[in-house]
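Lecture notes, unit on protein representations.

Consider one protein chain, 104 amino acids long.
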Amino acid sequence: MSIESELSKSLLHFFKPKGMNGGALSNNPSFSSFFVVFIIFLILLLIKAFIVQIAYNAVMPSILYSLDVKNKSSFEEIKTNFRNITFIESLLLVILFNLLFNKT
């Protein structure tokens, strides 16, 4: 064997990705990879729900004020009667829109 072939074999062994068998994935992917993907998905879902809650509670009173043409209520009156959505409600809204508009 030449030095180049031994060097190439050792480099290939060093840079070979874990869980790969040739060009295909191994039959038993680790549980930790599924767990990490699930945790990342859950964190992203919670961040989306928090953003929806903050945005809805900040913008919706202004939208309701601009749509109130019949009663001519003041902005302060609309703002006092407006009920903010909770985190659970915003989480349900995010799940609903993800299910309705998912492109997969």
